[in-house]
Write a structure and sequence with these properties.
5 strands; alpha+beta; 136 residues; single chain; five-stranded antiparallel beta sheet; HIT family, subunit A; binds zinc ion
């Protein structure tokens, strides 16, 4: 994809702080980190998000995420990590090339990622029905 900013990073046309690279993936520092060490893992093949990435690319990305989560926690002396992926505009995706965020977390850093709520009466059952139907 010529105009995709992450494809440009992968082709070396835009500089990046490379954390890790292999045949199928590139991991680089997010230029606007939540915390230092915030890393993005992307497949080298262009697609848009979780909905059209190939199973092979997704497996490669997930395994790199697993390995880097360990290295980032250890290297940054963090107290945990968050793994996140935004898919489509209204889920907060700014760059339409799949990428998983690995965010090192530190005791007391105060970051609150996802506000939660309770299910109302019957809502959990209705929700299950919708998702299970879509799976078949
Ligand atoms: P998302 O909202 O999940 O699409 O996240 C896109 C992320 O890419 C943001 O956190 C940006 O800070 C990051 N980003 C954008 N341009 C660059 C770049 N040239 N190098 C590194 N990270 C970038
Ligand atoms: Zn791309």
């Amino acid at each position: 994809m010529p105009d995709c900013i992450f494809c440009k990073i992968i082709r070396g046309e835009i500089p990046s702080y490379k954390v890790y690279e292999d045949e199928k993936t590139l991991a680089f520092l997010d230029i606007r980190p939540v915390n230092a060490g915030h890393t993005l893992v992307a497949p080298k093949n262009h697609s848009n998000n979780i909905f059209d990435i190939t199973p092979e690319d997704w497996m490669a990305v997930s395994e790199v995420v697993r390995k880097l989560a360990i290295a980032i926690e250890k290297g940054m002396k963090a107290d945990g990590v968050n793994i996140a992926m935004n898919n489509r505009e209204h889920a907060g995706q700014l760059v339409p090339h799949p990428h998983v965020h690995i965010i090192p977390r530190f005791k007391g850093d105060g970051l609150k990622l996802m506000p939660q709520r309770s299910y109302e009466n019957g809502e959990a059952e209705e929700t299950l029905e919708k998702i299970r139907t879509a799976l078949t």
